[in-house]
Structure to design on (994 residues):
């Protein structure tokens, strides 16, 4: 017996159709397209496949019926732009994502990283796609497009308007993205909120909603022999190290001076502007501590032990979350000299190099931190050559922001446990949307994957761990869009932290 | 008018013939053979060409009419053995050298390192051979053989007896050479002295006689994530570095703790057994300081400035020589993570590795230093994996040893300025001959080359700098052998320091 319920709105009928349709189309129609997108390498560090992937991304926007599609050149890699602006009364979502991925060199993968292979039982956890970019972020991007495709296929209008912005330099620190945003601000300012696609379930099926993201500054240090001492132009015999200074020791000593073994950064003034944790955030931390499964988290990130204090006591869940409100300095790479693990070569090296980064939290300022890094290095190793990338700021949303509340409520309706993280581990240039347009960033949906920047990056198709797969992400996006369409446009800018 | 001088002994007639013969044969007959020897790679670190070069070395010994030629297997690379023992009344020289060379990977050469190319005007300094091994030590070895060949060609008996020992692991720290010496001690103990061939002239034509050589211990340190913390098996996203410890930082901090920026080693107890400089050595240092041309030395080793103190004052000549009486710790290589100089990759690395060495001086003991390194690392980074090679001791000869005196006198007769270094920069396993047989090591002859372990290792054929070439080395060897033959066997063991 079919009855017309007062609660069964037109949209809630739609959502049922869409979910049915996604389930019907996913395996044969959608999954191969996700694989196709992942098979094209798009490594911004080297440029490999970047142009091809930008064009492929534009083509997918065209399939969605987007207007005004452009591959916008920047001083670096291009940004893919498009729009679906049909009804000014509907809220407009700025869909922000990236088509670039991290390099894979010297990583050990169980399948080629750009084969987008389906592994029937990946590490005993379930059916998965293993590929560079499958979670960060070509997988979620394509899955989001497929939800839109489903709506369109059902003959309905999309519940919201869209401007699409998919950049190609996120993994390089979004170097030229602010330039793009500035030139396209007339277009972008129409947006009421930003949506960034990601698979937000933990391995155990908790949904992780992240209200803050950290900024980042990359920098590179070279030390080369020269007027100060050290071998000028070539490696020399290490027997001379008794009276010739070493660029390698200089670099090691310099880096070592930057951080205490506790993780505290020793560059003077780095903590000066760091904001104390608010009462609202403390409350969120308390709630999160109750829900967080530390053992599951450690398993997911492949560590046996989190940071320990001098008494070898492992960091508590609370300490761990609090750390996300503090800056963090990382050596991403260091190299000098003969590094073969077999044999020996006694050389005094003429140069040494390191790749580093620092994560920024509220209220650190990029220019201030750049200056402090520069001053520290000039003071401690005036012979060093330093290159600091532009970098970008942190961003932070309030849980009271109405769009954020809708996002949380929609995900809560899946009956999964929700973990609200006041600050996330990752970095993304979300600050620019906050600063420029005063709008919040909604981040995530169902589904689980992990190992961003690592070998065997994977996303579930069907897990044994309680977490959802890509299909669940597509369904959760349909629900969110439906909900956003229902509540319509809301004035919300004062709720951003 | 030809007169028979009482000073013109039979041998002094011989030496004139030989010098004439060397000059006649060098360019067309000898030089191509030196090139042939250098063209065969013999990299002990990788094993490339090792067997072929051992066989080639044995073949050259056969050409000299050596008896009992053997390619003696060891647990590592083989030792080439041979003997010319014709007259028990003549002194016996233990000719010790090596046929192995250092790796060349990632070095920039102006000619392929195993092409043994003759460069007509190498860096404006004169006609040279540029090749890996041309000074260290296949060039001097082959040049020495050619002097013997000249004597043989002249129809005369060699002025001294020989046992030849040419090892294949010197560049790895002569790991299995002591085993060989032990098994062949019945043969080797017949020797009255050791000769090690090398081009001993500085760029400016001063002859450098080195009376001591330092011992060496190589070691390797790995730090890998595990039970202590850190990423267990793969690099993970650096955003996790806020609460996951880093093998890279651990390694950098550990290495940094090993040495002060002054060069002083901070591993406890390292200096405990270091012998104070003797009055005899102080006298030699004073003499050497007067002769040493620091600017020429710095040019030769490609540095603008020697170690400087905290006031940025450059090390004096005396400080420099004194440093050779102190141990020295070197980072030969370090690697971890993403080391591309372009682009960025934010990773928290699961492992970090370093190659290091320490030079030993009188009276440091290998086992004691190994223990101190091990204890320091266990104390400061119990999670590190440490591999320490066998290593070997320092050696030191007295300028009063009669064979050493003959060596000095013979070289002084060339009218070149003589620099006597009580301690040299380099390391060689000379201690074993001292300890086992109580005999001194004579090291060197005319000729200049440099850049051992570096790109564009070269030796002069004809220089513009005042230094001799390979042909001068061959002639100086002829003179030394003549002199040794004249003085005959001398009881000399009490003069070794």
């Amino acid at each position: 017996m079919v009855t017309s319920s007062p609660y069964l709105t037109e949209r809630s009928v739609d959502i049922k159709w869409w979910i049915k349709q996604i389930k019907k189309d996913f395996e044969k129609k959608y999954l191969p397209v996700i694989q196709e997108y992942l098979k094209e390498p798009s490594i911004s560090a080297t440029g490999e496949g970047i142009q091809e992937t930008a064009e492929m991304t534009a083509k997918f926007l065209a399939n969605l019926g987007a207007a005004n599609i452009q591959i916008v050149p920047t001083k670096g890699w291009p940004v893919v732009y498009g729009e679906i602006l049909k009804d000014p009364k509907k809220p407009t979502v700025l869909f922000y994502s990236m088509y670039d991925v991290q390099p894979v060199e010297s990583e050990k993968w169980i399948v080629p990283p750009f084969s987008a292979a389906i592994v029937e039982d990946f590490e005993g956890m379930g059916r998965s796609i293993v590929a560079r970019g499958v979670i960060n972020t070509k997988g979620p991007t394509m899955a989001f497009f497929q939800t839109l495709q489903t709506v369109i296929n059902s003959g309905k209008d999309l519940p919201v308007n869209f401007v699409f912005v998919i950049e190609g330099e996120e993994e390089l620190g979004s170097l030229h993205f602010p330039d793009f945003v500035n030139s396209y601000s007339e277009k972008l300012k129409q947006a009421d909120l930003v949506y960034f696609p990601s698979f937000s379930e933990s391995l155990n099926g908790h949904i992780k909603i992240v209200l803050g993201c950290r900024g980042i500054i990359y920098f590179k240090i070279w030390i080369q022999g020269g007027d100060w001492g050290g071998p000028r132009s070539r490696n020399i015999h290490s027997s001379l190290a008794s009276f010739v200074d070493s660029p390698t020791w200089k670099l090691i000593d310099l880096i070592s001076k930057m951080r205490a073994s506790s993780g505290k950064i020793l560059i003077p003034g780095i903590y000066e502007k760091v904001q104390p944790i608010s009462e609202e955030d403390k409350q969120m931390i308390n709630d999160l501590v109750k829900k967080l499964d530390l053992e599951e988290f450690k398993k997911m990130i492949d560590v046996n032990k989190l940071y320990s204090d001098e008494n070898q006591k492992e960091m508590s869940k609370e300490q761990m979350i609090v750390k996300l409100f503090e800056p963090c300095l990382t050596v991403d790479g260091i190299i000098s000299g003969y590094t073969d693990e077999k044999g020996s070569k006694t050389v005094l090296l003429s140069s040494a190099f390191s790749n580093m980064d620092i994560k920024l939290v509220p209220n650190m300022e990029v220019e201030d931190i750049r200056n402090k890094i520069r001053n520290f290095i000039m003071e401690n190793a005036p012979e060093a050559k330093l290159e600091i990338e532009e970098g970008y700021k942190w961003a932070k949303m309030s849980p009271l922001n109405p769009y954020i509340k809708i996002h949380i409520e929609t995900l809560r309706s899946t009956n999964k446990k929700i973990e609200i993280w006041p600050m996330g581990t990752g970095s993304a240039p979300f600050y620019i949307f906050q600063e420029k347009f005063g709008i919040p960033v909604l981040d995530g949906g169902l589904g689980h994957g992990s190992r961003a920047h690592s070998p065997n990056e994977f996303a579930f198709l069907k897990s044994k761990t309680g977490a959802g797969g890509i299909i669940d992400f597509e369904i959760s996006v349909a629900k969110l869009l439906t909900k956003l369409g229902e509540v319509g446009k809301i004035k919300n800018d004062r709720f951003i932290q």
Remarks:
- Confidence is low (pLDDT under 50) at residues 1-6 of chain A.
- The longest strand of chain A covers residues 215-224.
